[in-house]
Amino acid sequence: MSARLMMTVAGKTLPLTFDAQTHAGPLLSSATTAWAGLPFELHRVGAAENVGEVGPPDGEYGLFVMMEGTAEFVVREPSGDQRYEAKPGSAFFLTSQHRGHLLRMNGNGTAVAVRITPEWYRRLALGDVPPGAATPPAAPDETVHRLVETMCNEVARNATTGPVFAEALSMALLSYVTRRVPPASEFVRGHLSSAQCQKLRTHIRENLSGELSLVELASLVGLGPRYFSTLFRRAFGSTPHKYVMQQRLAEGARLLTTQGMEIAEVAVQVGFCSQSHFTAAFRQAYGVTPRRYLLDTLARPEVTL
Questions:
Q1: Are 38 and 173 in contact (CB under 8 A)?
Q2: What class has domain 190-305?
Q3: Where, residue-wise, is CATH 1.10.10.60 in the chain?
Q4: Which residues sit opposite 70 in a β-bridge?
Q5: pTM: predicted TM-score of the whole model, two decimal places
Q6: What is the homologous superfamily of the domain 6-187 according to CATH?
Q7: Positive/negative CA dihedral, 275, 279, 280, 281
Q8: pLDDT tens-digit profile of 192-231?
């Protein structure tokens, strides 16, 4: 790791700065301590004009988190020039595959830049993040802000709590933000084949009583979880979690009305940890409790042709 975080600006790799007028160094840098987590720097946000193409060095990703004040970015995109505003807790990804063309930056405050290498995604069992566009700032998020603030406080104390704490904080931040600010899906290429979709349907149907985690489903078709999630939504029209939930409840409704099973038995059979959890999810999906659903079905006269 270099002593400074770097970024590529107009084809040149330079020390990172958000204050292009004064080229000020970072207010805080994890590289000067024993910090064992994601490398990051705290910078003062300044003003810049006609910066050009900006983004992380080749093969890396970056995370920008506004800490204090506000910042405005004007970025040239295929659809036209777009203006984005970042407030405390706003976060967005930058990728080396699609560096943004920054026309103008204004701001008064501080921001943290985090360096993310593919190795960190592999630690999180996400695989390599697929190529994506730099995402617009997400809405301010208190959890993001507190996690990054804790990282800054720890580095300000010379990372005295130790490497385990640093790594845990970093993994928590990366996990949270990765799922909250996914790469732009239109830049993710590929699709699940018919055979892969059928394999997933069969596996889910035959294992409703199990955990059916995202990692498990992704590994079934040989993909990283993050990339798999995007392709799954594209193929099935919903997230993996929502699809599995729909299948659990549909099977639960079938078992209630055809097998004569108790509600508690059905709940376990379709993967719920308790009858109350099953009942709450069932009511949200069907508008009635499992017991009312069963009674209504039994009271319904049979239709004969």
A1: yes
A2: mainly alpha
A3: 190-305
A4: 108
A5: 0.58
A6: Jelly Rolls (2.60.120.10)
A7: positive
A8: 889 999 999 999 999 999 989 888 998 898 887 777 888 8
